[in-house]
Amino acid sequence: MLDEIINCRKCNMCNNQLPLLDKVDECDVMWVGLSAKEVKNVMEDTPLSASTKSGGLISEIETEVKKCKYYKTNVVKCLPLDRGGKLRYPTRKEMDLCITNLFREIEILKPKIIFLLGKNVIKAFENNIQMEFDDFNDYNYKMYQFGNMRVIPIHHPSYISVYKVKSKENYIEAVKNLITFAL
């Protein structure tokens, strides 16, 4: 289904690691992170896996809202490395090249809800759909209509796990309520 993304060669990041994709072929909820992490085998691992802080928090939410099918992805599917071989943030140009793959995933999977995880993902999405999302305060997130889907910009889960640990339950509850309300 997503062979065109697996075979993407728009930039040279595929030389660092092939695109990391989820193995699900339908979903109600799509989680969109920024970029891939380094994995041993892209065919066996998934984006935002439970072994990471972000993925662990997402897994907690998924466990509590079981009636949904979930798909995890990133704006940048391959591994952005600096000259020294260390993980780095992707550039705006890399995000702009890669985001067409995200829109292809959305087109194929047709999720009902798309969660944009963090400011970099939100900005990349805004830049490519000529739309601006309001800033959010605390855990008062707003839904936006995007075709037949609802797009919801939220805090990145790793931000919550590192800087807002004491209010993690508020975050989980807010996101759970959004999923329940939107479906």
Automatic annotation (TrEMBL):
The keyword DNA damage applies. This is Uracil-DNA glycosylase family protein. GO terms for biological process: DNA repair. Gene3D superfamilies: Uracil-DNA glycosylase-like domain. Keywords: 4Fe-4S, DNA damage, DNA repair, Hydrolase, Iron, Iron-sulfur, Metal-binding. Residues 24-175 form the Uracil-DNA glycosylase-like domain. It comes from the Bacteria. InterPro entries: UDG_Type-4/5 (IPR051536), Uracil-DNA_glycosylase-like (IPR005122), Uracil-DNA_glycosylase-like_sf (IPR036895). It comes from Mobilitalea sibirica. Pfam families: UDG (PF03167). GO terms for molecular function: 4 iron, 4 sulfur cluster binding; deaminated base DNA N-glycosylase activity; metal ion binding.
